[in-house]
C-alpha cells in the first residue's frame, strides 16, 4: 500500500504537536491522517476505523498513555497496529515503560522528517 493510502492516527493533548506531526507526515507522503486530543477519543476512533499506524504522545510517567497502549494491545482487532510513542523526555524509564506496555517504537521530540521516516519504516516493517 502506498504511504498516501495508509491511514495514520495522531494522539496528543497538545494541538501544536499534532499539527507538527501532521505536517511532517504530509511531507513524507501520508495524506490520510486523523487526530485525537486524548486517549479516550483515540480509542473511539480506533474502534471505528482501521489505522495502519498510531503516533501517540507520552508525557513522563503518563498513566493514561500507558493504559492506552495496554488497551490497544489487549484488543483483538487492534493488537497488531503499530504504535510509535512521541516523547519530549529522553529518559529511559518512561520509554521502557511504554515499550513494556506494547509500543512498537518511540521518537524523541522535536520531531524531524528523517527521524520520523526511519521510525515509521521500522514500525511498519515489524
Give a short summary of the structure.
The protein is α/β, with parallel strands linked by helices. A five-stranded parallel beta sheet has the order 2-1-3-4-5, sandwiched between helices.
Structure description:
The protein has a single domain, classed as Rossmann fold (3-Layer(aba) Sandwich), CATH 3.40.50.2300. β3 (about 55), α3 and β4 (about 85) form a beta-alpha-beta unit. The chain has a 5-stranded parallel beta sheet with strand order 2-1-3-4-5, with helices on both faces. The protein has about 130 residues and is α/β, with parallel strands linked by helices. The protein is globular. It has helices at about 15-25, 40-50, 65-75, 90-100, 115-125; strands at about 10, 35, 55, 85, 105-110.
What is the fold's blueprint, element by element?
Layout (H helix, E strand, L loop, with lengths): L7 E4 L3 H13 L5 E4 L2 H10 L4 E5 L5 H12 L8 E5 L4 H10 L3 E4 L4 H13 L1
* Helix coverage percent: 40-55%
CATH 4th-level superfamily: Response regulator
Indicate the low-confidence ranges by residue numbers: none
Query: Which structural class is indicated by helix and strand composition?
Result: alpha/beta
The gross shape turns out to be globular
Number of helices, counting only DSSP H or I runs of 4 residues or more: 5
Total number of beta strands: 5
Number of domains: 1
**Share of residues in strands:** 15-25%
Radius of gyration: 13 Å
The CATH architecture comes to 3-Layer(aba) Sandwich
Q: What average pLDDT do the residues reach?
A: 91
Fill in the CATH topology: Rossmann fold
Largest sheet: 5 strands, parallel
Q: Give the topology string: H per helix, E per strand.
A: EHEHEHEHEH
Top-tier CATH class: Alpha Beta
Quaternary state reads single chain
- Our measurement of the CA-to-CA distance between the termini, rounded to an integer number of angstroms, reads 15 Å
